[in-house]
Amino acid sequence: MTDARLDAPLSYVRVAPEPVLPAPIFSRGALAWMRANLFSSWLSGALTVLSLALCLWLIPPLIGWATFHAIWSAPDGALCRAHQDGACWAFVAQKMNYFRYGSYPQTERWRVDLTEIIGAALIVWLLWPRAPRRAIGAGLFFIAFPILAFILLRGSDWFALPLVDTVLWGGVFVSLLTALVGIVFSLPLGILLALGRRSRLPVVKLASVIYIEFVRGVPFITVLFMANFMLPLFLPDGWAPDRFLRPLVGTALFAAAYMAEEVRGGLQSINKGQFEGAMALGLNFRRMMGLVILPQALTLVIPGIVNNFIGLFKDTTLVSIVGMLDFLATVENAFKDTVWNGPTIAPTGYAFAALFYFVFCFAMSRYQAAMERRLGRGRRR
Amino acid sequence: MADEGDQTDSAAISMAGVHKWFGSFHVLRNINLAVRRGERIVICGPSGSGKSTLIRCVNRLEEHQRGIITVDGVELTADLKRIDAVRRDVGMVFQQFNLFPHLTILENCTLAPIWVRKTPKKEAEELAMRLLTRVKIPEQAGKYPGQLSGGQQQRVAIARALCMNPKIMLFDEPTSSLDPEMVKEVLDTMTGLAQDGMTMIVVTHEMGFAREIADRMVFMDNGEIVEINAPKEFFGNPRHERTKMFLSQILH
């Protein structure tokens, strides 16, 4: 009905249905998209042009540095010192094994490879939504894998695997191990702390609040130092954990406090009716939380949780401060090699390290997005 | 009134001298009410009169501070085992449905039977499908609550409560948050349930429905029971002034 004049008749009865029309041409397609997103106003247009110019100014030299002018293979640093306008990938290639294994004995490195392959396979099994029997995958990953990894990496007389002291451990697998331990332990610990903080039992609540506020109130480095130097003081003689284990404990405990606040945010956003609905059906506290409340609360805070995981992964670089040789520490150690010494070595090493961290963090971020899409499906109103 | 709470043995629910306070606010004042097995009670009254609080005390979503509440022979105390036992046998339907949005309709219905009653999954699903058929929405079993209309959601909530095979059903304003055209489908479901002999306490403003199914009407105001009567008497010849006033306000 388009007749909106005041002198139109007061009553109206439709005789034919209004046709359904396609949307106007300018609201669709690439041109419409550009007009809406890039040139919607003079200011927006100017910023678009400026950004484009900035990209053109910065990106080609960077690509040139990383590819065309780069040295891809060389026996030592001489060639790299001669070509200072490009990256020295030869250095990375040469040091790759050191980056991956640290000082782990050459002949035993297959054990690290095997652990990594098994771990990666189990993670894929666990994270791939349509994988069969994910419960078994979870059991293997959370129970069997840690034992296996411990035996493989550290060694055991029973399996005729020579002991490898943790002093020799280093590189990528140490970074991945630290991050994995932090991630796997911080989430359940964080959930317990979040529930504790909401508990009606005053002692449990107070303990949770004190823990969370204390850990959040001190820098990660302080927690690492405390785990490293004070943990042995609190425990009886002979109980002092391995110097490699201490930072792992510190990392997990630190991350748990942040995770707890994230989870608490999720719990708070769950409607009271959900609790009442579950209680009225006779579900006890544990089942109510496990089956009704936490699945919803955790889904709501996936972005925050993954954000914490990403932060945790990058924070693992700090464990080098208490003497753990993580990936970044091996890269920096390699700079000291006089054979490769040169002005392009450090930029190349750091670029490689950045790429390494970016790949892992970006993967987590993409998985998060996919997960949100999957869980959001069918639940929106 | 005073001896209502004494019939503990034969009563499905008995409340004797029940008081409750929210902080210093006296929300339930000396409630005495016994509900016989198979009896249908409709509670009405102005908002804030304590109707919802009263039925929420029956399955201990709210705890009472004085008096005795006995449900199916079990006295409600702080003992969690007793509370669980009572909740297993008392179904409740809420104003806001309170379906679990992360589970499908079928999973909503089978959750409690599987985890609380330990019913095998297959059996629980068969039961759920039977009850979803009874509330006339078996075809929605695979959907999520968010994809259903309000009336459909409330019927699922009724089916979900029935899946626990309850002896008593509590309804807390089940049609108050529904669009007008969906009220009837929910009331029809409840009428069917009443005809099958379920013990029911219903808090509602639907007086037509109340007149049809109630064995007794309970009128509450200011946290106290003002009048209890058979519906015919209650609507035809209300005795207390406050009842008369309330009825004149809602029945035009």
Quick rundown:
The complex is a heterodimer of chains A (381) and B (252). Chain A is mainly α and 381 residues long.
**What percent strand of chain B?**
25-35%
Oligomer: heterodimer
The order of strands across the largest sheet of chain B is 6-7-8-3-9-10
Percentage of helical residues of chain A?
55-70%
Strand content of chain A: under 5%
Radius of gyration of chain A (Å):
28 Å
> What order do the SSEs of chain A take from the amino end to the carboxyl end, as H and E?
HHHHHHHHHHHHHHH
How does the overall form of chain B come out from the CA principal axes? Answer: globular
Please report the total strand number of chain A as a whole number.
0
How many helices of chain A? The count is 15
> What is the end-to-end distance of chain A?
31 Å
What coarse outline of chain A follows from CA principal-axis ratios?
globular
Q: Structural class given helices, strands, pairing of chain A?
A: mainly alpha
Helix/strand/pairing category of chain B: alpha/beta
